[in-house]
Prior knowledge:
The structure holds 2 protein chains of 2 kinds. Helix content of chain A is 57%, strand content 0%. Chain A is an all-alpha fold. Chain A is globular and about 40 Å long. Chain A starts with a helix and ends with a helix.
Amino acid sequence: MKLIWLVLIFSYAVNAMPVNSRLIKTSRTQLLQKVSFDETYIRYHGLYDIPMHLDGLVKIYYLPDNNCVRLTPENFTSLGGLPPAVEKPVQNEPGAFYIDLYLDCMRKGLRSAFDENDRMQTNFTYVLGDDALAFARRVLARSDQDSATDVANERAFMQKDIGDISPELLHDLTERLITHVIGPREVWSSFGLIGAESPLRPAPKDEEEFIAAVLKQANSSPKREVIDFIVDVMTYVRIATLRG
Amino acid sequence: MSISLNAFADMQAAQKAFIKIKNRLQWGNPPTPPEWTEFFSYARDHNCEDVTCMQTFFEQFADKSMSTAVFQTWMTLKIDELFYLKPKYIAPNSGQNAAYEANTSIRFEAFDALVNSVVSENRSWKDLFLSEKFRVRTPAPDIEPEWGIENPVAYRMGRMAPYSSSDESVAVEFHDQPNVAGVWSTNRFLTRFSDTDLNSGRKRASVFFRVMLCDEMKPSIERKNQDQLENLLAVGITEEQFAQTHKANKMINQHASRPDCRLCHQRLDPAAWTFRGVRVFLGSKPSSGALVHYDQDGQLRKQPVSSLRDLNETTIATERYKSCQVDRFIQWLIGYDALISQKRKMDFIAKFEEVDERPLDFIRYLVTTPEFFTGKTEGLVSPPSLVQARGVFQNCNECHASLPFGKNPYLARETVLKIISKLDMAHDFKNRKMPPSDHWWSPDNKDLAAIRQWVSEGAPRETGEAILNADDVRGALGGQL
C-alpha cells in the first residue's frame, strides 16, 4: 500500500511539473510547437539559456524572477509556439514578443547583479575593469565638482543621473561596457555587428558608429540612472550578438 | 585536419572561428576580454595570420572549455532533452541557486551519474547504453526488499525506492546481467516512460529507436485521430462531439494491425519485447526479441537478440547507430541546418570510431573542421534536379512542410513516397489527388517533369544523399527506370 501511494505521488509530481519541454512533445500538434521552439533555440537561444548568458556577463548566483525562464501555456505563443488548435506550417521565427521577453529577463538578471551592495562592488570592477573606481571618480568629478570626493564610490556612481555625465565620458563608459560584453574594439566587426551584414539598422560602418548606435539605443530608455544605462547597454549588445 | 586557406584567409576569420568555438562550447557566450588577450598573445607569439595557424590554440581552448561545469551542464541538458526528460538545471558555480532548486527534486540518480560520468570523464559514448557501472543514492536505513525482490539495489535501479535524504551515493556494479544496459536500466528513464498493458514496452522501445538509430516513430493513433478531427471539423462536427468518440476509441489499439502502421510496429514490437525484463523492476531473466531496422542502404534487417543488453550491443554494432550519433553531434555543435557531404560524413564517422566514441575527443575534432566554421562542406553543390523540384514544391508550402523533408531518413522516405502516391506518378500523374482541384495553383507539364526527374535520381537532398532506394524509384515511376 505504501508503495502504491509512493508511485501515485511520484507520478503526479512528475506530470504536474511546470515548464517542461517534454510536455510539448507528447502529441502531434504539440510536437509542431516543439519544432518551432527548436528554431527559437537555435536562432535566439532559449529562455533557459539566460542564466548561462548572465553568468558570462556578471557574477550572479540566482535569477530574481523565476518566471523569466519558465515556459508556460500563457507565454508559449510569445516564444514562437503555435496554438494547439492551429495546424499550419511551422513558423521559423519566434513570436513577435519573444525578443521583448528575452530582453526583459536579461535586464532583470543584470539589474539584480547590481542591486545589492556587496554584489554591486564585485560586479562594478568585473564589468568596468580594475580601474573602475578611478573611472567613476573621474565621471563624478566632472559632473559634480563640489562633492566628488565624498560620493566617489560604486553606489554613488550607479545612482548618478546619466544626463549629468559628459558626452566624452559616456562614450568611454559605453566602450568599456561593449568591451566587457564582446571583447576589444578590434574584434567587434567579427561579430557581424559592423558593416552590411549587421542586424542593426542603420548598419554601423565602423566602431565609432557602433558606439553611437548603442548610445542612442541606451539613451532611448526613460530611466536615467547610470545603473539603468549600464543594464541597457549590456543587454542591447548581448542581444545584438545573438541575432548577428 | 585540413582547413582551406581560401576560406579563412585572414585573422578576422580566425576571430570568427574563435567566437563560434566559444559560443558552442560555452552556452552561447562570446569570448571574455581575458580570453581575447590569450588569443592575441598566441597569434602574436606564433606570427599567425590565418586560422590554420591558430589550430593548436583552438584545440587547447576547446579542451579548456570542455572541462568547465558550463559545458558539462550544457551536455547534460542536451542528453536530458534527447531522452525527453525534464531538465535538471543546476547552474555552475552555484550550489545555492534558488532559481533551479525547484527543478531538482531528485538531485542524484543513476541516470544523471552515468551521463555526468560519460561527459566529465570522457568515457565512450556507447557506455551510455551499455554501462554496468552506476552510482545510486544511499538507501534509506529502513529499506527492505518488497514483493520478494532479493536485491534492494537492483530494485532501486529499476523502480522507485525510498532514498535517504542525503546526496551521498554508492557505487553499484553488475556483471553480465541481461537487463542492465546503461541508461535504459535506470530509474529516471523507466519512470519517465512508463510501461502499461497497452503500450507493453513500445513507448520505451520508440525512445530506443529515436536515440540509438534516429528512427523517430510517432503514435499513429494520434495521427489518425488528428486527421479525423480535421476532417470532421471541416464538415461542421464540433470538437466536443469528436472528443467523445475519440475517448471511446482511444483504448482500442486498432492501429497496430493496419498495414501502414505495421511499418513502425514491425520494428517497434520486437524491440519492445526485450524491455519486459525491466517492466516492473530490474529483473534477472532475459527477454528475447529482435532488432528490426533499416540499414544504411534502406533495407529492412532483422537480427534476433536475447536480451535488452544484447539489443544494445547489436544496435551499437550497426552502421546506422554510428551515423545517427555522429548526426547528433553535428546538430548540437555545427547546427541543425548543417550541410555535410556524404564523403565528409564518412570522415566524421571514421573519426568517431577512431576516438572510441569518446565525446570530448570527437567534439574537439568537430570544432576544428571547416564545416564547423562555415556550416557546410566546401564546394557542396545542390543537385540541379533538387533545385528545380524545390521551385515547384514551394507552391505546396502554403499547406505542407517544405523540403528537404526533415533530417530523419525514414520519415523523409515515407513523405516522398506519399507525395509520389498523391501525384499518381506511377500512372503519369493521371489521377493525382494533390493539389486539390479547387486550389489556385496547378502544376504544368514542366513542373511535373521536374518532380519526375528529381524522383528518378532517388530524390536527392542538398547533400546529394538519396532519400529513395532503387526499388522505390522503380515503383514510383511505374516500373520504368
